[in-house]
Amino acid sequence: PHAVMMMIPEAWQNDGDMEPEKRAFYAYHAELMEPWDGPACVAFTDGRVIGAVLDRNGLRPSRYMVTDDDLLVLSSEAGVLDIEPERIRKLDRLRPGRMLLVDLEAGRLVDDRELKHTVSTQEAYGDWMRDRLVTEGKLPTPRPERLPKPLEGDALARTQRAFGYTDEDVRMLVGPMATGGKEPIGAMGNDAPMAALSEKPQLLFSYFRQMFAQVTNPPVDPIREKLVMSLRSTLGRRGDLFRMKGGPGPLVELTGPILDDERMQALREMTDPVLRAVTIPALFRAKDGARGVKDALDDLATRVEKEARAGAGIVVLSDRAQNAEWAPIPSLLALSTARRHIAEMGLFGQLSLVVESGEPREVNHFCLLLGYGAHAVHPYLAIETARNAAADTAKDGEGVDGQAKYIHAIEEGLLKVMSKMGISTLSSYRGARLFEALGLSSRFIERYFPGTASRLGGIDLEDVVEECLTRHRDAYARPESLGEALVTGGQYKWRREGEHHAYGPNTVGLLQHATRSGNYEVWKKFSTLVDREAKDNTLRGLLRFKKRRPVPIEEVEPESEIVKRFRTGAMSFGSISKEAHETLARAMNRLGGRSNSGEGGEDPARYNTDRRSAIKQVASGRFGVTSAYLLSATELQIKMAQGA
């Protein structure tokens, strides 16, 4: 039972009613091993006891019964065996995180509370953690003069340029987070090219895509199920799984992984040498190019190993000292290199890596850094930008804490992304590398991101470095740039000098002209332009048909039969419009194909008319699903988890 409680713990972090001894047990073992979230019901035995435990979210049904002759039956569903009801002495189910245990020697069922109390009081876990855990409230308060000097005016603008900030980043991303405390939401599709096809320099973050849970691992609702979710993080040297007496090394406990300026400086001023953060620059000499980055990464890995062997528990990879001579190494590249090296040297768990960088500002950037092993991130430039944005919007002297609101928005975003993978705790997400590379060469991935899927190939280290240097030159090689505004960006809205978009003014103008005039020639111009845009800017546009010997036309089905196989995409009524949704349905019904309602339901007035969608979707918890809705369908699609 001890091992199972350690590997598959309850949701203990936010449970205020949990016994102190049990909480201390879970806190102690969290420093030895990352928890497993399931979803699963796991059975176990050591020959003396036999039992089962349900994951912290309770996402797998587990029912059991005990008969009058002491037969115990555990199964995912009730009624797997035909047993007369009068023979059943007990009928129950496992609750989230609870354990069912049979003591074969004593011949009895052991209650979950009794079992866990016995295990959690075998050692003085509470004393061990109390002696060695430094909570945020116990961190030293840095003197104001010891804090980094705020970036203002030209210094802020130059640093933003060095890290590729755009006007959109400030105005549409960081600004709203700094004032509203929430990640901004957009509802339009992304018609910008993927990073590898863009003509604009891209951050390394942009070459990775998040994975998401499907049927085997359902997503979690981070709002309604917040009790089971946790961003708790600890910094320092982890304990040894095989020498558990006395507890882990000294640790700093954080409520979340995003560090503000004060907490970052506090780590540098810790009196305990194990917890005093050691800073290693993540920089390369700009004039040395790709060769300089390779040498800098080798040096960084060696220095991290040296600090780990010397007893340091916290190492900060920092690009804060970047200047005209020294350019920042992409933070994700520096982190992955350091983490891979200490793992190869057998030092994994001997120190925590903190990333101090001006590069990350979006939620996905932080997900990547944490997903590749960072224990905490200090986004100093994003925080400075947030402070300035909040100050610009303050009214009548009412100040807004832009730093706090920005950090809150990022951490809420982290919970959202973790929940997409069905992961509840940051410690389970950290280092899991739940990403796929899109547009990076296999050589680059094997060297710096081993274990990450990259099915397409793409750019190499030299190209990544050149994109870094393009940003660096914009900041330091053009003195006149200081008087200019940040580039627009155009990632989210079309701008003349911004990122390319498949649906720009020319495309949209032709579409509007064609639909309003009914002119087929204008429509052909529109469709030709759309095809050309797709060819140059999308993945599918790079594909070509393999040539084969043509099939005689008399052996091919007539058009009227072929079109019956056509299906429209599953777009809900709310995602487009009433007119567009009904037009698609009419068109497919006339052709003999099938339109898809999406998961937003359908107006009953459309049933049994030419506006009916033949395909109806059913998704858990969605509105509009009635018996009439189901009966009006020719085809039903039941969406599991994030079925889209």
Structure description:
With 644 residues, the chain is α/β, with parallel strands linked by helices. It folds into four domains: 2-134, no CATH class; 151-183 and 195-210 and 256-483, Aldolase class I (TIM Barrel, Alpha-Beta Barrel), CATH 3.20.20.70; 505-542; 553-639, no CATH class. 35% of the residues lie in helices and 14% in strands. It is built from 20 helices and 22 strands. It has a four-stranded antiparallel sheet with strand order 1-2-6-7. Strands 12-14-16-17 form a four-stranded parallel sheet, with helices on both faces. Helix 8 (289-309) crosses helix 9 (331-344), helix 10 packs across helix 12 and helix 16 runs antiparallel to helix 17 (520-537). The protein is globular. The mean pLDDT is 90.
Question: Summed up, what is this model?
Answer:
The chain is 35% helix and 14% strand. It has 644 residues and is an alpha/beta fold.
Distance between the termini: 39 Å
Main beta-sheet strand count, sense and barrel state: 4 strands, antiparallel
- CATH classification, class level of the largest domain: Alpha Beta
Q: Which CATH architecture of the largest domain is right?
A: Alpha-Beta Barrel
- Structural class comes to alpha/beta
Q: Counting H and I runs of at least 4 residues, what is the number of helices?
A: 20
Q: Could you tell me the number of beta strands?
A: 22
Strand content: 5-15%
Roughly how much helix do the residues carry, as a percent range?
Answer: 25-40%
Overall number of structural domains: 4
Mean pLDDT: 90
Strands of the widest sheet, in order across it, are: 1-2-6-7
Radius of gyration from the CA trace? 29 Å
| CATH structural fold name of the largest domain | TIM Barrel
- How would you name the CATH homologous superfamily of the largest domain? Aldolase class I
Low-confidence stretches: none
Mass-distribution shape = globular
